[in-house]
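Re-run with default settings, no changes from the original entry. Doing this only to confirm the output is reproducible before filing.
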Amino acid sequence: MGFDASGVTGADALKQAFREHPAGVALITAMTEDGPVGLTASSVASVGIDPPAIAFSVTRATGSAGGVLSADTHLVHLLDSRHAEVAQAFAVSGAERFTAEQGWSSLATGEPYLPASRVALRCRPLHTLGVGSSVVVVAEVLGAVFGDAADPMVYVDRRFHTLPSAERP
């Protein structure tokens, strides 16, 4: 069975392939000397448990991504259907972030924390790898703060979608 080249290559092929591939939605936050920073990410994945680690990527090392990359620790909030508006705000440059209406607080360690999230993983970077204009981060999970769960949310075809919850034990 051969490879049928459809004429779509490179970045266009990757975008087209992943546009219809659902991904979980996360919000990554950190505290910098200039204040809190955060960004929405659909690239968070579990790496392993020894050490407990996750991976994610950011598209450039400037702005909020640069702040996350330069921080000693960060929080990775795994979002659910209650947080589509917050995820959208942190996905758009210049949008209102860290507002009182969004419900932010801080952990005792200083990271911006969204208490309404189902879980926030406190992490510290272990490795970074530059790939063109993107940076892949592998981070050790230091601990977690768990909240209430709600219907899961995924990102597909440039929009946030709610999935029905599986029955919880």
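The CA atoms of residues 88 and 159 lie 9 Å apart. The chain has a mean pLDDT of 89.
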